[in-house]
Every structure is written in C-alpha cells, then in structure tokens.
Amino acid sequence: MNTTPSIFNQNITPYTSIGGRNSSDSEMCAVILNRPGIPHRAFFQELEKTGFDSVISVEPSSPNYNIEELSQRFPFVRFIIPEKEITTGEQINLAASEIDNRLFFVIGSDMKIIAGGTARRMAERLIATQEDAGVNSSAFKRLCTVPVIVNSNYEPIPTIVTPLTRHKKLWTGMMEPHNEGELSLYPFNGIGIYDHQRFTGIGGFDTAIKNTHWQLMDFGFRAYLWGEEISLSLHLKLLCEKEFPSADFSADKGYRQFYLKNLAPVFRNNYAHLPFSRFIPFLFKSNEDIFSAWEEFSKKRKWVTENKNRFKSDDVTVINRWNNIPAQTVTETEEKQEST
Q1: What pTM was computed for the model?
Q2: What residues does 82 pair with on adjacent strands?
Q3: Three-state DSSP string of the chain
Q4: How many angstroms separate the CA atoms of 53 and 266, rounded?
Q5: Structural domains for the chain
Q6: Of all helices (H) and strands (E), which one includes residue 46?
Q7: What would the pLDDT profile of 91-122 be if each residue is shown by its tens digit?
Q8: Max CA-CA distance within the chain?
Q9: If you write DSSP's letter for every residue of 167-184 in order, what string do you get?
Q10: pLDDT tens, 253-312?
Q11: Taking the chain, what is the end-to-end CA distance rounded to the nearest angstrom?
Q12: Which of 176, 183, 227, 338 is buried most deeply by CB count within 10 Å?
C-alpha cells in the first residue's frame, strides 16, 4: 500500500500504468525520464545488469512503440503514460507516487551508469551514511544525492548548481563536481538519488510551475529553507553523450511563483510569513494588473502561512552557504532576478 504523506502534491496529471511488479523488496527503484530517439531495450538490459528489479519508465504521452511488447520482455518495468506532456518535475512526482522503495534513482534514458556499483551497493552506501549519522539524527539531511555526469570524452560536465548574488540580483552558476558532499542548489535536470520519504515530505516538485528551470529552483530553495540538503557523491558517475536542453531563464509566471514562495517570505522567531509590505514591489515587477497580482500574492501568502513552521531559515542564509566558493570555478548562467 502506498503511504505517501498528505503534504505531497496531489495535482498529478492522469496517466495509464502498464506492467511492472506490484512490489519489490529492494531499497531502491530506478525512475527513467525518457528522451526522444533512445532505444528502450538496450537501456533496460543495462539496468537489469546493474541489479535494478524495480523500474518506473515515464513515457511520452503518445509513444510510437509497442509498450505491451516491452512490458512482456521486461516484467520488472512499470510503464507510465501521462495523459499529456508534462514537465520534468511532474514526471518525477508521478513516478514517486507509484513507488514504496526507500530510495529512487532518477536517470535520463540517454545516460549510462558507469560507476557506483550495483543497485544494491548504491543503496547500501547511502543508507549506511544515514545510519552512521544516526537514524533520528538531524546531522543527516540529504534529500537528494547528485552524481558526477561526464560527456562522451569522459570529461565532467558542470552540474553543481550554486546561487549567486550581486547588487540584489539573484542568478545561478554551474561548477564541475570536485569534492565529496559538496552542495548543489538543486539536482541538475532532476537527476539524482532521492530519499522517498524526504521527497514526499517536502511536497515534491510544484506542478503549478510550468517553467522547468523555476520548478527546479523552487524545489531546491524550498529544500534548503526547510532544512534539507542536496549534495554530491563522487562514487556515482553517469555518462551522457547528448547535449542537455537549454534552460528558459525568463522572468515569467514561474519566476513569480518561485519568488513569492522562497525569496519574499520573512523568517523570524522560528517561523516564516509573507508580509503585506512585499505586495507593492511585487505588483510593479509582475507586469500584471492589480487584481491578478493580488490574487497570486494572496495564494502564496496563504501557502507560506500554512507551511510557516516548516521554514528553518531565510533565503539569505541559504545563499550564504555557498559564500566560500572561488569565483573562477563558477560558470554563470544568464538569468538575473530580484533578490530580497
């Protein structure tokens, strides 16, 4: 029986589920984000060799191949077909709602696991890290473990995300992975091993945010604001021979939603609130009429109030966690948005 906490975002797109085992005793499930033109058979065979006996494959809304045939050939794979095309975060939410495993490894179908060992070994290593810190200890707060990703020349790709500020503007930078346990603001392209309970506990990805970049930013900031961490394991390495799609950094509705939930709240006396004084600056920068802007502001103010005790810090404290990173190691992205 699925025991997903009630806080987990339930606005999941209707979908069809085909095949797959009803349950698995393994600690970790693989979640596959499918890319166009990637053969399924060879990819699933690789996962099988790696020891995954539970796989969720999130398909396009209109697959042009025989899912039933694939399901018979790979009985350990459950194929999920959403009713419509959905964002990366929505795909991960959908898969997380289908599993009961302690961990789940989100990987693109254009990637290959080249270091980390078997599925059992990867899970054992992460669980041992948690148990070393103490099962109930606040020392272990890793919501997501991100891997090293290399290109076809086996060169590390800059996938460690860092927040940057200058003149009250916020944007992100990308670094190559270097040190075990170094922090990333969010899992690059959603790729990583997630703690299922922690993921559902913070509500997963916000399905109301349709811009994938701001959806990832919202997820990462919320994780750190609520006391979680996203960090690197040098033991995990993925090969990706294709280029990643470019991100959309425009200050659209997704950015406004991210801003109101993560940058605008004020944290004092161990709880957060979104003060009315934030509305006028938001109105002038929103490019919306006053009624639409107030409706959006009010919804997010209510959300902050409902979750006020989940906040452990403010956005400045989160950003300051990356203060000691040498500037020459960071490649800046293009977006620059207002910070508090």
Answers
A1: 0.91
A2: 15
A3: CCCCCCCCCCCCCCEEEECCCCCCCCCEEEEEECCCCCCHHHHHHHHHHHCCCCEEEECCCCCCCCHHHHHHHCCCEEEEEECCCCCHHHHHHHHHCCCCCCEEEEEECCEEEEECCCHHHHHHHHHHHHHHHCCCCCCCCEEEEEEEEECCCCCECCCEEEEEEECCEEEEEEECCCCCCCECCCCHHHCEEEEHHHHHHCCCCCCCCCCHHHHHHHHHHHHHHCCCEEEEEEEEEEEECCCCCCCCCCCCHHHHHHHHHHHCCEEECCEEECCHHHHHHHHHHHCCCHHHHHHHHHHHHHHHHHCHHHCCCCHHHHHHHHCCCCHHHCEECCCCEECC
A4: 45
A5: 15-240 (3.90.550.10), 253-338 (no CATH)
A6: helix 40-50
A7: 999 999 999 899 999 999 999 999 999 999 99
A8: 59
A9: TTEEEEEEE---STT-B-
A10: 999 999 999 999 999 999 999 999 999 999 988 889 999 999 999 999 999 999 999 999
A11: 43
A12: 183
Burial of 179 (0-12, 13-18, 19+ CB in 10 A): exposed
Amino acid at 46: E
